[in-house]
Design goal:
Structural class: alpha/beta
Bound molecules: phosphoenolpyruvate, manganese (II) ion
Largest sheet: 8 strands, parallel
Order of helices and strands: EHEEHEEEEHEHEHEHEHEHEHHEHH
Strand content: 15-25%
Number of domains: 2
Shape: elongated
CATH class of the largest domain: Alpha Beta
Distance between the termini: 34 Å
CATH architecture of the largest domain: Alpha-Beta Barrel
């Protein structure tokens, strides 16, 4: 819909609009009002270049598009019937709980094994564990490829699927070859379109799942959903959206918790939402409340940093990992809240 600056356009201006949209297979339909005339674009209006050229005209105020920019991730897409599975959990049917340390310690693998066993006992459905870590400080521990073996040994011992972050093509290849079921794209790479494309291409034809974090900055929901479109575009629709808090941070929390975006995502996309309360709030003591708030907002799952002995952990663990005992209590509360929510709102999709 083209909204002109003046109440109506001169015939030569309408001709100019018509010529531009015709190049993209569209036509102009004026909608004549008593005071103002606006100009509908009839046809596929998702051509970004067409919109930019129209918006660049001196007599155009703005162009509003009604078609979604993300064809596959859109709630009205054919893919809306698709269900993403992680291990034995079908997202949307049951609450998925993924948990594990921020960072696997390659020198002390027993922490990961003990954590994995305790989290399974606590009721977790999947394990997370950082093999390679994106660190702000270039001198901080960056992770170690040796930890990939430890991650997979944890998977073997518990029978649970595992998630780890990949940041480049080499890590992607190693993780897939090792049998990692869930690839995490972190907040720092959430808009790294060439990585998103590589991941989409690499998982096509496999049943691998991608956990796509939301970017760290306060970006739009369309930007978040469009990042997922880059991945599913190659044919594997197993993508999960993961709000994890955005900057600027609140005075007290590490980031601005954004679990409240779940209902908004639901209106636009079919993709399941798994909230990461750990990076949202950044301190173990605040994690349970944030996790329960996320469930109250209708998320499909939680991804929580947990460690048997947080003070012996690396990366974020000393500050934000919860213990398996805390997680066990939280899982009970979260599942009860999830069930309560479903019984009160049976018609809400996937919540
Ligand atoms: C993590 O999961 O440990 C991590 C680094 O997350 P994010 O990309 O959300 O910061
Ligand atoms: Mn972390």
């Amino acid at each position: 819909m083209i909204l002109p600056k003046a109440n109506r356009l001169a015939p030569a201006e309408v001709d100019e609009l018509t010529a531009i949209v015709a190049e993209f297979g569209c036509r102009i339909q004026p909608i004549v009002g008593d005071v103002r005339t606006i100009y509908a674009i009839v046809g596929d209006e998702r051509h970004e270049l067409m919109i930019s050229r129209l918006e660049g005209l001196p007599f155009v105020d703005r162009v509003d598009t009604i078609q979604s920019p993300h064809k596959l991730m859109d709630i009205r897409s054919e893919l809306a019937r698709h269900r993403v599975r992680v291990g034995r959990v079908t997202l949307g049917d049951e609450l998925l709980v993924m948990a594990g340390p921020c960072t696997i310690d390659p020198k002390n693998p027993q922490y990961f094994y003990e954590t994995a066993a305790a989290l399974k006992e606590a009721g977790a459905d999947a394990l997370r564990g950082g093999v390679w870590k994106p660190r702000t400080n270039p001198y901080a521990f960056q992770g170690d490829t040796k930890s990939l073996e430890i991650l997979m040994e944890g998977a073997r011992r518990t029978g649970l699927p595992v998630d780890t972050e990949v940041m480049d093509e080499e890590q992607l290849r190693l993780a897939l070859d090792a049998g990692v079921q869930v690839l995490q794209i972190g907040a720092r790479n959430a808009l790294n379109y060439s990585l998103l494309r590589q991941v989409g291409r690499a998982i096509a034809g496999r049943d691998t799942v991608v956990l796509l974090k939301r970017g760290m900055h306060l970006g739009t929901l369309n930007e978040f959903i469009s990042a997922a479109e880059y991945i599913v575009n190659f044919g594997n629709p197993n993508v999960i959206l993961c709000p994890r808090g955005t900057q600027p941070g609140l005075d007290g929390y590490r980031n601005h918790p954004d679990e409240s975006i779940t209902p908004l995502l639901r209106e636009r996309t079919w993709a399941p939402v798994v909230v990461d309360p750990s990076h949202s709030v950044g301190k173990a003591a605040y994690v349970p409340d944030c996790a329960l708030a996320a469930v109250a907002y209708g998320c499909d799952g939680l991804c929580i940093e947990a460690h048997v002995s947080p003070s012996h952990g690396l990366g974020d663990d000393p500050k934000q990992a919860v213990t398996p005992a805390v997680l066990a209590g939280l899982i009970k509360e979260a599942r009860a809240l999830h069930a309560l929510r479903r019984s009160h709102r049976p018609s809400t999709p996937r919540s």
